[in-house]
């Protein structure tokens, strides 16, 4: 949102097709088509799926219907989609499913220029974080940084269990 408020043309894409959450996070309740409808050719073009966010240069590509199919989205289709969006935006931000858990992760990683690794809320094992970063590295994706949301980490050292509670940043 900060990029768009400064005048940059931004497209935010919800690619977590099994558990879409971007619209909810932004408080958007207006029905819209997304990648599921685009992929299944229920809409003719990407433009029909883009929703403008009032008061900014942000456009949203996020649907309402979770994908039921377990078949991954092809890397070729994703690259074509990103290339189409490039002509309409200065920045394309993609919200993805958890890294490394689904086949879509590898295809998304191959279609984007770089990744900002976001560590979500809840208990996250350090091994999961390291595995995900290794996955991104092996896929050739440039990781430009890591962002921590509210995070609880459990570390087990022999018989001692250490719990770290890291609150969200203030401000």
What does this structure look like?
- There is one protein chain.
- This protein has 171 residues and is α/β, with parallel strands linked by helices.
- It has 6 helices and 8 strands.
- The protein has helices spanning 2-5, 22-26, 35-39, 75-86, 103-111, 126-138; strands at residues 10-14, 50-52, 58-61, 91-95, 114-119, 142-148, 151-157, 160-166.
- The strands form 3 sheets. Strands 2-3-1-4 form a 4-stranded mixed sheet. A two-stranded parallel sheet has the order 5-6. The protein has a two-stranded antiparallel sheet with strand order 7-8.
- Helix 4 (75-86) runs parallel beside helix 5 (103-111).
- It is globular and about 40 Å long.
Strand order within the widest sheet?
A: 2-3-1-4
In terms of DSSP E residues, the strand content is 25-35%
Order of helices and strands: HEHHEEHEHEHEEE
Terminus-to-terminus distance:
16 Å
**Overall radius of gyration:** 17 Å
Number of helices: 6
The biggest sheet, with number of strands, parallel, antiparallel or mixed sense and barrel status, is: 4 strands, mixed
Q: How many β-strands, per DSSP?
A: 8
**Could you estimate the helical fraction of the residues in percent?**
25-40%
Which structural class do you get from the secondary structure elements?
Answer: alpha/beta
What best-fitting shape do the alpha-carbon axes yield? globular
Give the low-pLDDT segments: 158-164
């Amino acid at each position: 949102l900060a990029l768009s408020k400064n005048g940059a043309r931004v497209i935010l894409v919800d690619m977590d097709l099994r558990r879409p959450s971007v619209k909810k996070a932004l408080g958007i309740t207006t029905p819209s088509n997304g990648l599921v409808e685009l992929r299944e050719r229920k809409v003719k073009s990407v433009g029909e799926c883009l929703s403008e966010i009032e008061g900014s240069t942000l456009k949203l590509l996020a649907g309402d219907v979770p994908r039921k199919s377990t078949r991954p989205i092809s890397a070729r289709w994703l690259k074509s989609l990103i290339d189409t969006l490039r002509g309409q935006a200065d920045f394309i931000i993609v919200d993805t499913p958890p890294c490394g858990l689904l086949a879509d992760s590898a295809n998304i990683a191959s279609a984007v220029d770089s990744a900002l690794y976001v560590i979500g809320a809840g208990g996250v094992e350090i091994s999961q974080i390291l595995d995900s970063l290794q996955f991104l590295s092996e896929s050739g994706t440039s990781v430009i940084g890591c962002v921590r949301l509210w995070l609880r980490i459990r570390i087990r050292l022999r018989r001692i269990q250490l719990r770290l509670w890291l609150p969200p940043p203030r401000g």
